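Have a think about this chain, tokens included, and walk me through the fold.
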Amino acid sequence: MGARLKHKRDYYAGALIMLFGLVAAAKGPGYGTGTLMRMGPGYMPTVLGVILILLGLSIAGTALVTPATEDEQLLPDNPQWLGWLCILAGPILFIILGNFFGLLPATFACVFVAALGDKSSTIKGSLILAAGVSAFGVLLFSYVLQISMPVLTWRGL
């Protein structure tokens, strides 16, 4: 059993995914799940939470059957801190900018900053990607799905 515990990354990843799933599955029914034909606002978080719990169990379970290796570090030798920061900053920017300026600037900033997290990306490539995703996102969420988030707004700071 001691050799099996060398797969700490798999256990930590599985436990973290299960934790997110447990939170979603516990909080979801509080919003009313409804039925399969008339889903309530808590239906998707509850189902997604159960799926995350099962996925976390399978990830942690694979650590039991894979052979142990000597290279079991939690962090890589050269962690890409700038990339991680950019990828984590993208959704935070979406929340902040979406609240004050609307869907279009929030989507553009989110995709642009997250794309800069890739070592091989260029500013020009990130701008093109952000413009394309923003146009598609506005078309899909605002006009097709009619989500009630304004495309452009000014709420001031």
Summary: The chain has two domains: 4-65, 81-144.
